């Protein structure tokens, strides 16, 4: 009986770890194109056809500054240092912006998270 209770307790503790991570509603998906000292080149993935056509006329900013308190999370929700951003070039990421328009959080997204975010955005937009 003691082994059963101990096993049940361990399973209950493991449930939150297997639940996945929660991404914010304000997450903007895209790809990390380039990294330099002043910021990153971020190419948004959720642009509509009209936004793409207007980008031909008026250049849309793709270079964003990084906030001083930047947090970077990998696929397993571990913290990465900002110096490790070069290794993430070409990867699908999600970012959030602070009030000044600087990127304050970066999440490296897995395939299942990309599909879930696309599904969430499809439900929000008619």
Task: Tell me briefly what this model is.
With 126 residues, the protein is an alpha+beta fold. 32% of the residues lie in helices and 31% in strands.
How does this model look, in words?
- Residues 1-19 form the signal peptide.
- Keywords: Signal.
- There is one protein chain.
- The chain has 126 residues and is of the alpha+beta class.
- It has a single domain (24-124), classed as OB fold (Dihydrolipoamide Acetyltransferase, E2P) (Beta Barrel), CATH 2.40.50.
- 32% of the residues lie in helices and 31% in strands.
- It has 3 helices and 7 strands; from the N terminus they run H-E-E-H-E-E-E-E-E-H.
- Strands 3-2-1-6-7-4-5 form a 7-stranded mixed sheet, with no helix packed on it.
- A hairpin with a 5-residue loop joins strand 6 (92-97) and strand 7.
- The longest helix is centred in the N-terminal third of the chain and has 17 residues, at 2-18.
- It is globular, with a radius of gyration of 18 Å.
- Residues 15-19 have low confidence and may be disordered.
What shape does the CA trace take? globular
Strand fraction equals 25-35%
Helical stretch tally? 3
How many β-strand stretches? 7
Major sheet description: 7 strands, mixed
What order do the SSEs take from the amino end to the carboxyl end, as H and E? HEEHEEEEEH
Percent helix: 25-40%
The CATH architecture designation is Beta Barrel
**Tally of structural domains:** 1
CATH topology: OB fold (Dihydrolipoamide Acetyltransferase, E2P)
Average pLDDT number: 82
CATH class: Mainly Beta
The end-to-end distance, rounded to whole angstroms, is 54 Å
| Strand-pairing-aware structural class | alpha+beta
With strands numbered from the N-terminus, the spatial order across the biggest sheet is 3-2-1-6-7-4-5
Radius of gyration: 18 Å
Spans where pLDDT lies below 50 across 5 or more residues: 15-19
Signal peptide: 1-19
Keywords: Signal
